[in-house]
Specification:
Elements (H helix, E strand, L loop, with lengths): L5 H6 L6 H7 L15 H55 L3 H39 L12 E3 L6 E3 H4 E6 L2 E6 L5 H11 L5 E6 L2 E5 L5 H33 L4 H26 L1
Antiparallel strand pairs: 1-2, 3-4, 4-6, 5-6
Helix pairs in contact: 4-7, 4-8, 7-8
Length: 281
């Protein structure tokens, strides 16, 4: 601020013009304190530096918050994992794991499939056993001709008698009526070739074949029993093959279950054979 002597100020007249007043002022030095000024560039530099400091502080605070947030998440995820581990432990104690349950189901399914096959072999042998027993008692049945196969002239396919003729029973004889008389001789030869115990076919006319079925002798019954024993062994072999096929799929996992089913149907076949021996002895 400007410094003016007091005397000079008092001598000034308020009504005098400003120029005259200034002219009458004494030539006393005026002291003006130095004031620090800033250029536009300096102000910008200062403000920029301050902005950077503010941004740096904000970034620092943001980084700290982010680190705290990540640490909190890790802590939470770790707690969740521990809870899941505890749940898994509880699950394993309470129930069988899903993978093991699937293996158990697969084993049970394969054992069931093998059992169905084995049962089929046992039932087939049961039918053959009953036919032999009926035949040993002198009963006439058309099922005695079921095993016969005929190959017609100029063909390679094997056909059953029921496909090319009808079979009926009259007294103690089987009567075969052929559809095509040109096939009569071929069918008769096929019956001879089958070598059925006590059965000898003969043609009565161009389309009819008669097979007299006498009451079987002791040698006939012995032959029937021998044939049944062969069929029994074949049936048991089929049962064992069914077991081996399932073992290749399951490995050792279902060995005990498969063996149990195998033993069941093997004993069943042996029991049927034992019954036939008593009937045909």
């Amino acid at each position: 601020m400007s410094f003016l002597p007091r005397l000079a100020l008092r001598s000034l007249s308020v009504r005098q013009p400003a120029a005259l007043v200034l002219a009458r002022l004494p030539a006393t030095p005026v002291f003006v304190p130095a004031v620090r000024t800033f250029t536009n560039s300096a102000l910008l530099q200062a403000s920029g530096q301050g902005g950077r400091e503010v941004k740096a502080k904000k970034k620092s605070k943001g980084a700290i918050k982010l680190a705290e947030k990540i640490a909190s998440k890790k802590k939470g995820s770790k707690a969740v994992e521990e809870d899941e581990d505890d749940d898994d432990d509880d699950w394993s104690q309470k129930r069988t794991p899903r993978s093991e349950q699937i293996e158990v189901d697969n084993t049970a399914t394969e054992v069931k499939k093998a059992g169905i096959k084995m049962k089929g072999f046992s039932q087939w042998f049961s039918e053959k056993t009953q036919e032999a027993i009926d035949r040993g008692r002198g009963k006439v049945s058309s099922s005695a001709l079921d095993s016969i196969r005929v190959v017609l002239p100029k063909t390679t396919n094997e056909l059953s008698l029921s496909a090319i003729s009808t079979i009926s029973i009259k007294a103690n004889a089987l009567i075969i009526n052929v559809f095509d008389e040109s096939h009569t001789k071929t069918i008769e030869n096929a019956i001879h070739k089958a070598n059925l115990p006590g059965m000898s076919p003969s043609s009565t006319d161009a389309r009819t074949i008669k097979i007299t079925v006498p009451r079987p002798s002791s040698s006939d019954r012995a032959s029937m029993l021998k044939n049944l024993m062969s069929l029994a062994e074949s049936s048991k072999q089929n049962v064992r093959q069914a077991r081996m096929a399932s073992m290749k799929i399951l490995g050792k996992d279902g060995s005990s279950e498969l063996q149990e089913v195998t033993d069941k149907y093997t004993k069943e076949i042996d029991g049927l054979l034992g019954k036939a021996k008593k009937e045909l002895a």
